[in-house]
Specification:
With about 350 residues, the chain is mostly helical. It contains 15 helices and two strands. Helices cover about 70% and strands about 0% of the residues. A two-stranded antiparallel ribbon has the order 1-2. α2 (about 25-45) runs parallel beside α15 (about 330-350) and α9 packs across α10 (about 195-210).
Length: about 350
C-alpha cells in the first residue's frame, strides 16, 4: 500500500530528525543516541526498509543545515516597531521596577538591574525557564481567550490570530512558535492526532530554522510538550495531582539543560516548581491584561512587592548545588535514557502500519 502516516509516526520522524541534525553538527556527541534509536527500531522489528520515506523526511532539516548552516527565515521579519512602541509605553510608569517586571514577564526582556536580579534569583531556584516566553505562557493565554469567547463560533480562529500576533512581537521564539504552529496545523487538519501535530510542527520549525535542532530553547519546548502529552494520556482523574506530576516530569526532563545553562541546581525545585508556576501564572496574566492601564500603578506595585517577597522567601530557604563543569558523558547518558524511553513508548503503540 501507499505511504500512510499513522498515529505516532511523525513523533518518531521528529526525534530522528533531531538526532540527524545533531550528528551533522557533532557526530560524537549524539552517536550513542543514534545507535539506541536504530537498535530499538530493529529490536521492535520495524525494519528500516519499511521506513524509507520516514528517513527521507527526517533527513531534510539536516541536509538544509549542512548546506545553509545559520539560515533562519524568521530573520527576514522585522518586528522592532511594534515591540518598541509597546516598550516605550510601558516605560512611562513612575516606578521603574514595575516597567522592568512587566517587560520581563511579557517580553522576557532584562533591561535593568532589577530584572537581572529577579532572573538571577530564578536561576538559583532552578525555575528560570518560567521567565522564558514560550508554550507555557501561550497555553495560558489560549485557555483564557477560549474561555472568554467560548460561545463565539470562530473562537479558535480568533485565538490563533491573537497568538500569531504575540508570536510576531516576540520574534518567533521557539516555545510560542511551537504553539502557534500546532494551532494552525490542528485548524487545517482537524482529525490529526495531537502527537502527529507535535511532530509536524517540529519538522516545520526545523525546516524553517535548521539550526534550531541544536538550540536549548527548541529542545526544551518540544521535549517538555511531549512529556506533558504523555502524562495526559495517563488520564489522571485528580487534576491537582496531574498538575504536580506534570511540573515534576518537566523539571526532570529539562534537568540537564537547566544545569548546563545555570551551573546550579536547587535541591527544593521539585517542591517549589508547582507553587511558583501558579504564582507566576497569576502574575503574568495580571500584567499581560493590565500593562496599558497606567492609573493602576499602585496596584501594580503591590503585585510586584508580593511577587518579589515570595521570591525572597524561597531564596532564603533554598539550597543549591553548584555544577560549573557538567560532565558531558552524564548528559549523554541522561538524554540516551530519555530517548530510549520515548522511542520504546511510541513504537510499542506504533503497530500494524500500512505501507
Amino acid at each position: 500500500m501507499g505511504y500512510q502516516p499513522k498515529l505516532y509516526r511523525f513523533c518518531l520522524i521528529l526525534i530522528f530528525a533531531i538526532i540527524l541534525i545533531n550528528i551533522v553538527s557533532n557526530i560524537w556527541y549524539v552517536a550513542l543516541l543514534a545507535v539506541v534509536f536504530w537498535y530499538i527500531l530493529i529490536y521492535q522489528k520495524t525494519y528500516i526498509k519499511q521506513m524509507k520515506w520516514d528517513i527521507c523526511i527526517a533527513a531534510i532539516p539536516a541536509l538544509l543545515y549542512f548546506v545553509v548552516r545559520e539560515y533562519c527565515i524568521f530573520d527576514l521579519i522585522n518586528n522592532n516597531f511594534i515591540n518598541t512602541q509597546i516598550t516605550n509605553f510601558i516605560n512611562r510608569y513612575d516606578d521603574t521596577r514595575v516597567s522592568s517586571l512587566i517587560k520581563l514577564l511579557i517580553f522576557s526582556e532584562k533591561t535593568d538591574q532589577f530584572a537581572w536580579q529577579i532572573y538571577h534569583n530564578s536561576q538559583e531556584l532552578s525555575i528560570a525557564y518560567l521567565l522564558s516566553i514560550g508554550g507555557f505562557q501561550a497555553v495560558i493565554l489560549k485557555n483564557i481567550i477560549n474561555f472568554i469567547f467560548k460561545k463565539f463560533k470562530f473562537r479558535n480562529v480568533l485565538t490563533f490570530i491573537f497568538i500569531l500576533f504575540y508570536t510576531y512581537i516576540l520574534s518567533f521564539s521557539f516555545g510560542i512558535t511551537r504553539v502557534m504552529l500546532m494551532m494552525l496545523i490542528k485548524m487545517v487538519c482537524k482529525k490529526m492526532h495531537r502527537y502527529n501535530v507535535w511532530g509536524v510542527s517540529g519538522l516545520i520549525t526545523l525546516i524553517l530554522v535548521p539550526s534550531s535542532g541544536m538550540e536549548i530553547g527548541f529542545l526544551l519546548s518540544y521535549l517538555c510538550t511531549l512529556a506533558v502529552m504523555t502524562i495526559y494520556d495517563l488520564k489522571i482523574s485528580n487534576k491537582l495531582l496531574q498538575l504536580v506530576i506534570i511540573n515534576i516530569v518537566c523539571m526532570l526532563v529539562s534537568l540537564p539543560f537547566v544545569i548546563r545553562m545555570n551551573g546550579v541546581f536547587s535541591v527544593i525545585v521539585l517542591c517549589l516548581s508547582p507553587i511558583m508556576s501558579g504564582i507566576y501564572s497569576a502574575t503574568f496574566v495580571y500584567y499581560f491584561f493590565t500593562w496599558w492601564i497606567i492609573w493602576l500603578e499602585p496596584i501594580h506595585v503591590i503585585v510586584l512587592q508580593f511577587y518579589d517577597f515570595i521570591f525572597q522567601c524561597f531564596s532564603t530557604i533554598n539550597a543549591t548545588i553548584i555544577i560549573n563543569n557538567f560532565p558531558i558523558f552524564v548528559e549523554i547518558i541522561y538524554e540516551t535514557i530519555f530517548i530510549y524511553a520515548l522511542t520504546k513508548y511510541f513504537i510499542s503503540r506504533y503497530e500494524n502500519l500500512n505501507y
